[in-house]
Automatic annotation (TrEMBL):
Keyword Membrane: no
Domain 4Fe-4S Mo/W bis-MGD-type: 18-76
Cellular component annotations (GO), alphabetically ordered: membrane
SMART domains linked to this entry: Molybdop_Fe4S4 (SM00926)
InterPro entries named in the record: Asp_de-COase-like_dom_sf (IPR009010), MoPterin_dinucl-bd_dom (IPR006657), Mopterin_OxRdtase (IPR006656), Mopterin_OxRdtase_4Fe-4S_dom (IPR006963), Mopterin_OxRdtase_prok_CS (IPR006655), Prok_molybdopt-oxidoreductase (IPR050123)
Name used for this protein in its record: Probable nitrate reductase
BP terms from Gene Ontology: respiratory electron transport chain
Organism: Brevibacillus brevis (strain 47 / JCM 6285 / NBRC 100599)
Region (Disordered): 354-376
């Protein structure tokens, strides 16, 4: 790939008694290149330097990235396996004793066997995450289906990328988050970003995003809050939470009316235009303004700028996806690119900003309830046969498809599921409607949690297994562009911790299923299996090798042959991945959020992130700098709303919804709509905003409605402003 205008050769300085290990950040989907500094006398990681040679971040990093290394030798690391001695203390950090690996693994396997003997194979479940490498994500799917032989596996991407995946699959026939490499972004003429707080959540994208304006291009942002991105945008579409579908339909309506559509492209490369035209016909700027609260002028101007721009990129993130109609929102925004033909060429396209480090790769290789490696589907008998054959099991033995993450917690409550193997996620903080989820975990007969810190979820476990961090193991991840990259081991396994793959292989052996795993001795062995098994699938990794990744700074999938260089741009041949080669323009009638404000709950609550913390906060709340910068969650309230409730900045109030309540200090801020309040979700226990969120699920993706529900503020009798 050609070097872009930001590329500079800067050598990393190596200090005496140190070596640099070239790898990537553990956190978000940007997967910034970094070098870990290792003291060669102690062989411990002691610091970090950005990598200038990785084309995505080119030497830039954010506050989380520069402190990520502090996780590795942190005093809170779990040193050895823990076994629960007092069941009455479930839900607390008390009531555990240390144990050997032998004892812990034997206990797990005897419990699994006993439960399966009494209640059938599907009584076990696996809930996983995508902060893990492709190797671990892939193996977890195989572990559930081949070692544990259960249908019940799902993962935290259900709460993250599931609507993007469902929407992109429906519209384009493929779910690669971005149709273009990140090095295209700054070269476009119009960047339309919906529901993304990129300055805080994908901070190292910002130099490219600002460059669009520096070059004379336009930035249009749709967000109920005036985020740093929205503040500098040419147009800020400050919509009510949960109304994106109306906004997107309204813009498509105007693109058609203004003659800004590409008729040749529509005729030759898409289906569905006529039906869509009919549906959007009623979405006049006035009607859209009524639903969204955005002024008619702004809607008209946004559509005009987007329509006139020679090249344009539509980007969206969880703000539009974490809704009970997230899938429709994704397809509706994708319609903007499809009707204008601004897709399938450099500098134009569609991108969702993938959340977790391996949010892309981790959703391709079989951690989803209905999916097998290479993006194959469990309800396709041909796909099942292919994977069963690759794994060496009879096709009839392949477990059926399971259910989505939140539905799994429901099945625990009614005892259909009696055991959970949890890894790489902290659902006691991150799942919606937590009162229910916490009860579900309590009702389990036996729960295992694999983590490197004792998370809020680990406190519900019967056995806790200490795992290695990202910096102690080799492997690959696939970043938000679809680029497969290498992570490298910089330090030995901490204390008695083990990598997730090692643990799963040991359990498989003890379950009597070892023969399906024995030849996997290292991450590279597992990667080679992914190559074989994904061959012929949509997400085809066959042509990717560790060596090729090293030589090219990553390889974009699909990469079908050893000689193939991978595809940074998708659809350059205007072939979409539906059987007829055409993309689908989707006709999508509007529907309101699952829960609208009313007299009792008059406010709209939306939730999300701040720059200093990551997801459930289990990793970042322990890093001194990050904790100091943002110690506790704050409730963002517009000054006029604060006046209406008679509350002041920093006052402690109760926020309540139909599902639960929690107390927060108020942050009075103009950068939010008057009818909306916002709380970040990175905290556990009584501070969890997910005690309040709505588990209404999207019918296609099964994504909960994290981004919109009805709430009220309750003022405390005796104030609560801190003084001094
Ligand atoms: N600092 C930090 N960075 C992260 C993460 C983190 O935890 N912390 N997590 C990573 C992960 S896993 C993810 S998924 C991404 C998430 O990245 P983002 O999606 O950018 O983050 P959020 O804060 O969840 O939501 C984005 C924006 O959506 C807006 N929003 C809320 N409701 C609506 C709505 O109805 N419509 C529209 N259009 N916008 C709405 C919010 O005001 C917010 O500014 O970030 C990744 N990067
Ligand atoms: N209200 C609200 N809720 C949300 C969201 C929102 O916007 N609003 N966003 C949702 C989104 S987008 C996401 S991605 C989810 C994420 O929510 P979670 O899935 O809870 O994410 P993490 O906090 O990353 O949890 C990962 C856990 O695994 C551990 N861990 C890290 N790496 C490894 C590893 O390699 N192996 C193992 N075994 N453990 C590891 C970490 O210490 C941590 O405890 O939250 C969702 N919840
Ligand atoms: S932007 Fe994301 S990948 Fe880059 S340093 Fe920050 S958290 Fe890490
Ligand atoms: Mo996410």
């Amino acid at each position: 790939m050609p070097k872009d205008k930001f590329f500079k050769v800067i050598e990393n300085k190596i200090h005496p008694n140190e070596k640099l290990v070239s790898t990537h950040c553990s956190y978000c989907g940007m997967q910034c290149g970094m070098n870990l500094r290792v003291d060669t006398t102690t062989n411990k990681i002691i610091g970090v330097e950005p990598r200038y040679d990785f084309p995505v971040n080119l030497g830039k990093m954010c506050p989380k990235g520069v402190t990520a290394y502090q996780q590795v030798n942190h005093p809170d690391r779990i040193q050895r396996p823990l076994i629960r001695t007092d069941a009455s203390l479930k839900g607390t950090a008390e009531g555990f004793r240390e144990a050997s690996w032998e004892e812990a693994l034997d206990l797990i396997v005897s419990k699994f066997k006993e439960l399966q003997h009494n209640y059938g194979k599907d009584t076990l479940s696996v809930y996983s995450g995508v902060s893990m490498t492709n190797e671990k994500c892939y193996l977890t799917g195989k572990f559930a289906r081949v070692a544990l032989q259960t249908r019940y596996i799902d993962y935290n991407g259900r709460f993250c990328m599931s609507s993007a995946a469902a929407g992109l699959n429906r519209s384009l026939g493929i779910d690669r988050g971005s149709t273009i490499p990140w090095t295209d972004i700054h070269q476009t003429d119009c960047l339309f970003l919906a529901g993304s707080n990129a300055a805080e959540c994908h901070p190292t994208s910002m130099f490219r995003i600002w460059e669009v304006q520096n070059r004379g291009g336009y930035l249009i942002v749709a967000d109920p809050r005036e985020t740093p991105l929205a503040r500098r945008a040419d147009i800020h579409l400050d919509l009510r939470p949960g109304t994106d579908l109306a906004l997107a339909n309204g813009i498509v309506h105007l693109l058609i009316e203004n003659g800004h559509i590409d008729e040749d492209f529509i005729r030759n490369h898409t289906n569905g235009f006529e039906e869509t035209k009919e549906v959007v016909a009623t979405f006049t700027p006035e009607y859209v303004s009524e639903i969204t609260g955005v002024s008619v002028e702004k809607i008209v101007r946004a559509a005009d700028i987007f329509g006139r721009a020679p090249d344009a990129i539509v980007m969206f993130c969880r703000g539009v996806e974490q809704q009970a109609k997230g899938t429709d929102n994704v397809s509706a925004y994708t319609n903007m690119s499809l009707v204008t033909g601004k897709i399938g060429r450099p500098k134009s396209g569609v991108a969702t900003l993938t959340g977790q480090g391996n949010g892309q790769g981790g959703r391709e290789h079989g951690q989803k309830a209905d999916q097998l490696p290479g993006y194959r589907k469990l309800d396709n008998p041909e796909h099942v046969r292919e994977i069963a054959c690759a794994w060496g099991i009879p096709a009839e033995e392949m477990p059926q498809k399971g259910v989505s993450a939140y539905e799994m917690f429901q099945l625990m409550k009614d005892k259909t599921i009696r055991s959970l193997y949890l890894l790489c996620s902290n659902p006691v903080v991150s799942a919606p409607n937590l009162n229910h989820v916490r009860e579900s975990l309590k009702s389990l007969d036996f729960m295992v949690c694999c983590d490197f810190y004792l998370s809020e979820s680990a406190e519900y476990a019967d056995v806790v297994l200490p795992v290695t961090t990202w910096a102690e193991d080799d492997g690959t991840t696939t970043n938000l562009e679809g680029r497969i990259i290498r992570h490298r081991q910089a330090q030995e396994w901490f204390a008695e911790s083990k990598p997730d793959w090692w643990i799963q292989i040991e359990i498989a052996k003890r379950m009597g299923r070892g023969k399906f795993f024995t030849y996997l001795k290292s991450p590279q062995d597992i990667f080679n299996e992914i190559r074989q098994v994904s061959k012929g699938g949509v997400a085809d990794y066959y042509g990717v090798t560790y060596e090729k990744i090293d030589q090219n700074n990553g390889v974009f999938w699909p990469c079908r042959e050893e000689g193939d260089e991978g595809q940074p741009h998708l659809f350059l041949d205007k072939k979409f991945y539906h059987p007829d080669g055409k993309a689908k323009i989707c006709a999508l009638p509007y529907r309101p959020p699952a829960e609208e404000p009313d007299e009792e709950y008059p406010l709209r609550l939306t939730t999300g992130r701040v720059v200093f913390h990551y997801l459930s906060g289990n990793q970042t709340r322990r890093i001194p700098f990050l904790k100091d910068m943002y110690p506790d969650p704050l409730l963002e309230v517009h000054p006029k709303t604060a006046t209406r409730y008679g509350i002041e900045h920093d006052e402690l109030v109760t926020l309540k919804t139909r599902r639960g309540e929690a107390q927060y200090r108020v942050k009075v801020i103009e950068a939010i709509r008057e009818d909306t309040v916002f709380v970040p979700y990175h905290w556990g226990k009584a501070q969890s905003i997910n005690l309040l969120t709505n588990p209404a699920l999207d019918p296609y993706s099964k994504m909960p409605e994290f981004k919109a529900c009805a709430a009220k503020i309750i003022k405390h009798k005796h104030g609560g402003v801190r003084h001094g």
